[in-house]
């Protein structure tokens, strides 16, 4: 499927590089609109895609048009290609905080898919939640499924409301994990473990724990209990986390992110 990417940033590159890697798209299928010449040369050199400066040129002949620009640059896209998309074309947006109604009105086009991906998509371990307007064809939905599956797990939802929820959980989630890794590593260093060793220990613990949960299918509470001996060190540590409001803080953070996502959508 001929696919145009409006924006040649990190997430756009993650999408088409994973698609090429998984034989979902070929390099000859892909045209990227990128205003910075050095970046265009880099994308062509690394991926053998076509890269152009103009948005209008990128969408010529494309069946799927992926919007991957920063929200503050979206109005330039509307100015460039608004009203120029044909009924055979489908738009897929990964622009954060931009609801379907804004995309439909700005583009003058009603076959639109909205996706909330996350950064682990860069290595094929992402989580994407997406929805589509009624005008999106089954073929376009399948194309979106294939493209997003190349980046990791994908979840289709009927209601756009889930996109703001996904933003707060899987979209922002990597930052929560990175913050926890940073804190646990700092704690290890405080105890006296060398930093490079501490980071490797923490990453191995998190990756192994996640894989154990995934492969056993056991509830996290049950797995936590398996680690926690009565009166032991883990019980003492969990008591300290509870005392500091660990679970409540995580829940409050996710709720705050969800409320912010909703507010951004209302402003768009």
Describe the secondary-structure layout.
Blueprint: E1 3-6, H1 10-21, E2 30-33, H2 37-47, E3 50-52, H3 55-58, E4 64-67, H4 74-81, E5 90-93, H5 100-107, E6 112-116, E7 126-132, H6 138-149, E8 152-156, H7 161-171, H8 173-191, H9 195-216, H10 220-227, H11 233-243, H12 246-267
Parallel strand pairs: 1-2, 1-4, 2-3, 4-5, 5-6, 7-8
Antiparallel strand pairs: 6-7
Give a description of the structure:
It is a single chain. The chain has helices spanning 10-21, 37-47, 55-58, 74-81, 100-107, 138-149, 161-171, 173-191, 195-216, 220-227, 233-243, 246-267; strands at residues 3-6, 30-33, 50-52, 64-67, 90-93, 112-116, 126-132, 152-156. An 8-stranded mixed sheet has the order 3-2-1-4-5-6-7-8, with helices on both faces. Helices cover 55% and strands 13% of the residues. It has 2 domains: 3-163, NAD(P)-binding Rossmann-like Domain (Rossmann fold), CATH 3.40.50; 173-267, ProC C-terminal domain-like fold. Strand 7, helix 6 (138-149) and strand 8 (152-156) form a beta-alpha-beta unit. It is an alpha/beta fold. It is elongated and about 70 Å long. The protein contains 12 helices and 8 strands. Helix 7 (161-171) packs across helix 12 and helix 8 crosses helix 9.
């Amino acid at each position: 499927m001929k696919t145009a990417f409006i924006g040649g940033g990190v997430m756009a590159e993650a999408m088409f590089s994973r698609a090429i890697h998984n034989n979902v798209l070929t390099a000859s299928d892909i045209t990227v609109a990128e205003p910075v010449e050095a970046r265009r040369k880099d994308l062509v050199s690394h991926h053998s895609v076509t890269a152009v400066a103009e948005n209008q040129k990128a969408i010529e002949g494309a069946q799927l048009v992926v919007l991957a620009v920063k929200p503050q640059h979206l109005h330039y896209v509307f100015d460039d290609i608004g009203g120029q998309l044909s009924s055979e074309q489908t738009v897929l947006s990964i622009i954060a905080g931009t609801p379907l109604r804004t995309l439909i009105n700005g583009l003058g086009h009603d076959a639109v898919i909205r996706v909330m991906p996350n950064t682990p998509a860069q290595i094929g371990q992402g989580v994407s939640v997406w929805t589509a307007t009624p005008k999106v064809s089954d073929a376009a939905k399948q194309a979106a499924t294939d493209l997003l599956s190349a980046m990791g797990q994908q979840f289709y939802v009927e209601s756009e409301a889930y996109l703001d929820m996904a933003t707060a959980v899987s979209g922002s989630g990597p930052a929560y994990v990175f913050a926890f890794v940073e804190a646990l590593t700092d704690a290890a260093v405080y105890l006296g473990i060398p930093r490079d060793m501490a980071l490797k220990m923490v990453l191995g613990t998190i990756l192994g724990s996640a894989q154990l949960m995934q492969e056993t299918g056991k509830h996290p509470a049950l797995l936590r209990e398996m680690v926690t001996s009565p009166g032991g060190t883990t019980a003492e540590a969990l008591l300290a986390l509870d005392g500091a409001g660990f679970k409540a803080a995580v829940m409050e953070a996710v709720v705050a992110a969800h409320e912010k996502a909703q507010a951004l959508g209302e402003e768009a």
